[in-house]
Amino acid sequence: MGTGIRQAKQVCREMLAGLVIWMAVIMLLLAIVAEHKLAALAGVLVGTAAAAGLVLHMYRHLDIALDMDAKHAQTHTQVAAFQRMFIMAAVIGVSMVFSGYAHPVGVVLGLFGIKATALLNPVIHKQMQRFRKKRAA
């Protein structure tokens, strides 16, 4: 397995771990401040599950694009990005229809976990490296 693929898998795992941490923090905050706690928490679960799917989708399609020539890779990544945006909009739209079950605010905060974990990735990476070294020793 090439170094690039190994690094991409590692980043993907770190992003998923970051999503779990993000979800726990947001669920704790919403458990304190939300008026409709169960719907808000369900919304965070739905949003985070969708975000995890989107991270895996991004990983898969970037891996596919790396095997293409530049023109086709650009088109492929643009189509994949549009698909992710469509899925996000659909998940938010469905949550608006079923807001009694999964509140849209929770869904949006769960989806926002992608951005939060991308920004926190250097910190998550450092902690996971530390954990791997302890486990190997």
Describe this structure in words.
There is one protein chain. This protein has about 140 residues and is mainly alpha-helical. The protein has one domain (about 5-135). The protein is about 90% helix and about 0% strand. It is built from five helices and no strands. It has helices at about 5-35, 35-65, 70-95, 105-110, 115-135. The chain is flat. The protein starts with a helix and ends with a helix. The mean pLDDT is about 90.
Which features does this protein show?
single chain; 137 residues; mainly alpha; 5 helices
Strand content: under 5%
Mean pLDDT: 91
- How far do the termini sit from each other? 24 Å
- Give the topology string: H per helix, E per strand: HHHHH
Q: Write down how many β-strands occur, each being a DSSP E stretch of 2 or more residues.
A: 0
Brief description of this entry?
Helices cover 88% and strands 0% of the residues.
Topology overview:
Elements: H1 3-33, H2 37-65, H3 70-97, H4 104-111, H5 113-136
Helix pairs in contact: 1-2, 1-5, 2-3, 2-4, 3-4
